[in-house]
């Protein structure tokens, strides 16, 4: 028994290490890391190195715990400012979008596999949600700096649509097992939806409040706080599930609440969560890869690939277009949201349920879902950066990389302690002054500590300790950053000319023949842009004024434009932008008015 245990530990550790080292090589080729983890499991499995693992119940249990950890961290890392920008469209995508995707995919599944409607809906539900892990890792770890609203929409949608897919899959599995008809299924789905989502939201909010209070009131060893937070998240998940609610939604909401409150040892909590999420990712994908039997794929590979292609190019884009129709998403942004419909571990995990519940054709569901996930990770995961660049959604860097560390402060301080390593060509090394609202306290130079007042001019290689309000830390980053290597396309993104946002639209009209519409001539350009954008701007936003486009180059912490670029006679839209697909209601109304005038 002890010998078998040691072999199991050795095998598991070697597989995890192999996945990590494989990811280092994968980065050079731009391969999605999650695809690599999945392939390592496949290579080590029954048809590869010969490791036999066919325990579907254990695989589902491991995957469920791992997904709960990932969703808690997803909520924990989502800022409220992100929620404010994209909450409504992301919520529609996470609920209505999942239903539409499942329904459209079911139509194709019924044709390709000859399923009945309930069985086709089950397969559609299994692959209906985007994978939170895949989206978060490819956007955050992949280093793609997207426009804020697009990134926020994708992250919130992927973090909140798993509960909907889980609910649909579990309910349909129960209905198929009970041999219910489609008419009976509709009423059962609605009732279960209200119960699971309602309990998940309420218990998740209560759990988040309790977690924050417990962490801030207890006085423990610093190493225990992250363990307590993780244990509390898993307790909340299990209790909510036992009471009939969505445990996945509950842990996401609890993480969202806790991550936006001041907590003791926040930095150690974040580091621990990051490490645990990586481990959960690797273990979940390895286990799911081990469970698969590639020798069974040839029998279903062609219809499964056809269904994946239908999902990627038809079902997901149509669902996204219908969900984003009421919102003012430009076609390029809608197209990118449609493309980043990555399927991942959640789909494979849900495909285990028919196996575990002995549903007829359970193995078929699993094999089809596995092939569809592979296709999604290869086709979509490998092309996220090129697609974002082609659609003009990657924000070029305005500052270079910053070498800094944020340290925890005891109690509930309103300031952060940030340590910057002074880069050789950074503005502060060239004599730039540290603003008065920041409070530098210490300079460490060649291993010696100096009070800032007596350290003299800051030198390259120094470490400077500064107290600052959290909202102003990004402004400090600019002082300590390496010089940015600007992309040659920056001029196209930010504009060829610069204009002071304090100038008026009347001056803009006289100088460039701009058409500001009904805006009074005395309106400052910055105010005009903010009003046209709904009160808050983000870098890269464009406002059309006839023969010119105004582009937001810089913003202050409140989202007001502080730097504005100009493009004179912008190029006409082409390709996707000229297509009638993915237009929003405002664009459709304008197109209809134009046709009527003609």
Automatic annotation (TrEMBL):
The keyword Protease does not apply. Residues 17-389 form the Cation/H+ exchanger transmembrane domain. GO terms for molecular function: antiporter activity. Keywords: Antiport, Cell membrane, Ion transport, Membrane, Transmembrane, Transmembrane helix, Transport. GO terms for biological process: proton transmembrane transport. Pfam families: Na_H_Exchanger. It comes from the Bacteria. InterPro entries: Cation/H_exchanger_TM, Na+/solute_symporter_sf. The chain crosses the membrane at residues 6-26, 33-52, 58-76, 88-114, 120-139, 189-215, 227-254, 275-294, 300-324, 336-356, 362-384. Its main location: membrane. It is a multi-pass membrane protein. One of its GO terms (cellular component) is plasma membrane. The keyword tRNA processing does not apply. It is found in: Cell membrane. Gene3D superfamilies: 1.20.1530.20. This is Potassium/proton antiporter. It comes from Propylenella binzhouense.
């Amino acid at each position: 028994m002890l010998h078998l245990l040691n072999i199991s530990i050795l095998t598991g550790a070697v597989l995890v290490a192999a996945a990590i080292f494989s990811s280092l090589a994968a980065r050079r080729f731009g391969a999605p890391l999650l695809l690599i983890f999945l392939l390592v499991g496949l290579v080590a499995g029954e048809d590869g190195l010969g490791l036999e693992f066919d325990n579907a119940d254990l695989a589902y249990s491991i995957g469920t715990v791992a997904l709960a950890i990932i969703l808690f961290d997803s909520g924990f890392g989502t800022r409220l400012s992100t929620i404010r920008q994209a909450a409504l469209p992301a919520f529609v995508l996470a609920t209505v979008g999942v239903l539409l995707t499942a329904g459209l995919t079911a139509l194709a599944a019924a044709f390709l596999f000859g399923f009945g409607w309930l069985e086709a809906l089950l397969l559609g539900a299994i692959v209906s949600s985007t994978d939170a892990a895949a989206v978060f890792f490819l956007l955050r770890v992949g280093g793609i700096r997207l426009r804020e609203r697009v990134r926020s929409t994708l992250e919130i949608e992927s973090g909140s649509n798993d509960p909907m897919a889980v609910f649909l899959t579990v309910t349909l599995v129960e209905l198929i097992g009970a041999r219910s008809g489609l008419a009976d299924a509709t009423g059962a789905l609605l009732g279960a939806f209200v119960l699971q989502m309602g309990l998940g939201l309420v218990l998740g909010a209560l759990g988040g409040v309790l977690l924050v209070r417990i962490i801030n009131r207890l006085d423990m060893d610093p190493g225990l706080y992250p363990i307590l937070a993780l244990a509390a998240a898993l307790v909340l998940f299990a209790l909510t599930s036992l009471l009939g609610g969505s445990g996945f939604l509950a842990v996401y909401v609890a993480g969202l609440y806790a991550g936006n409150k001041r907590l003791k040892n926040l930095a150690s909590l974040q580091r621990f969560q990051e490490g645990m999420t990586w481990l959960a990712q690797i273990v979940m994908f390895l286990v799911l890869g081990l469970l698969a039997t590639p020798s069974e794929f040839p029998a279903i590979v062609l219809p499964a690939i056809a269904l994946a292609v239908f999902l990627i190019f038809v079902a997901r884009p149509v669902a996204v277009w219908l969900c984003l129709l009421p919102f003012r998403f430009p076609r390029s942004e809608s197209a990118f949201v449609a493309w980043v419909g990555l399927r991942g571990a959640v789909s494979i995990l849900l495909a285990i349920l028919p196996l575990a519940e002995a549903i007829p054709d359970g193995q078929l569901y699993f094999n089809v879902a596995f092939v569809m996930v592979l296709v999604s990770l290869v086709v979509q995961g490998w092309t996220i950066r090129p697609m974002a660049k082609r659609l003009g959604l990657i924000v070029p860097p305005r500052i270079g990389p910053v070498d800094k560390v944020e340290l925890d402060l005891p109690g509930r301080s309103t300031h952060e302690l940030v340590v910057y390593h002074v880069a050789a060509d950074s503005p502060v090394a060239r004599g730039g002054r540290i603003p008065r609202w920041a409070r530098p306290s210490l300079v460490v130079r060649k291993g010696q500590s100096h009070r800032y007042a007596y350290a003299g001019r800051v030198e390259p290689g120094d470490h400077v300790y500064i107290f600052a309000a959290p909202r102003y830390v990004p402004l400090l980053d600019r002082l300590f950053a390496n010089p940015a290597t600007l992309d040659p396309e920056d001029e196209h993104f930010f504009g060829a000319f610069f204009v002071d946002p304090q100038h008026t639209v009347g001056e803009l009209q006289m100088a460039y023949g701009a058409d500001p519409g009904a805006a009074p001539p005395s309106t400052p350009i910055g105010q005009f842009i903010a009003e046209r954008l709904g009160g808050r701007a983000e870098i890269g936003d464009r406002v059309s004024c006839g023969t010119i486009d105004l582009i937001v180059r810089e913003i202050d912490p409140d989202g007001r434009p502080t730097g504005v670029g100009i493009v004179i006679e912008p190029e006409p839209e082409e390709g996707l932008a000229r297509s009638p697909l993915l237009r929003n209601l405002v664009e459709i109304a304008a197109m209809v008015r134009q046709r009527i005038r003609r």
